Amino acid sequence: MSTNVAKYRYNHTMYRIRDPKASLKFYTEILGMKLFDEHHSEEAKFSLYFLGYEDSASDGLVRLARQGLLELTHNHGTENDASFAYNTGNGDQGGYGHIAITVDDLTAACARFDKFGVKFVKRPEEGRMRHIAFIADPDGYRVEILENPMLQS
Predict the structure, then answer these.
(1) Mind telling me the catalytic residues?
(2) b vs e for 121-152, b when ≥16 Cβ sit within 10 Å of the residue's Cβ?
(3) Regarding beta strands 46-52 and 69-75, do their DSSP bridges make them parallel or antiparallel, or are they unpaired?
(4) What is the pTM of this model?
(5) Between these two residues, 131 and 56, which has the higher pLDDT value?
(6) What is the pLDDT of residue 152?
């Protein structure tokens, strides 16, 4: 039996989320991702949401054929417990870092995030690394924001 590693692809990263309405709004309306697929299991009491960005190379592809997706996993009932929180890996113990999103204009993107009331972990003008920002999603997972000059029109 053999396998061809040249055919391996990075498909998705999974985050556990407390409130799917808040998380889906953040990733679709604030970060502009598209919801490609969802699966709900009432019996097992969980829901899965697969999000990402549309591009011409992946147009029309099924979820398993896409690359770079974000899977949000919701265990039913957590949305009703205001004190419930997942460990994002960025506390005192550290560990996990973040995902990164590229934008066409960092300054304009940050101004847009401000209008939506997004929590900033680090603004571009803070610290020595002035070419990046970090925001937090509703569960506190960090999202690095980077300007990509190739996206400018």
Answers:
(1) 144
(2) eebbeeeeeeeebbbbbbbbbbbbbebeeeee
(3) antiparallel
(4) 0.92
(5) 131
(6) 85
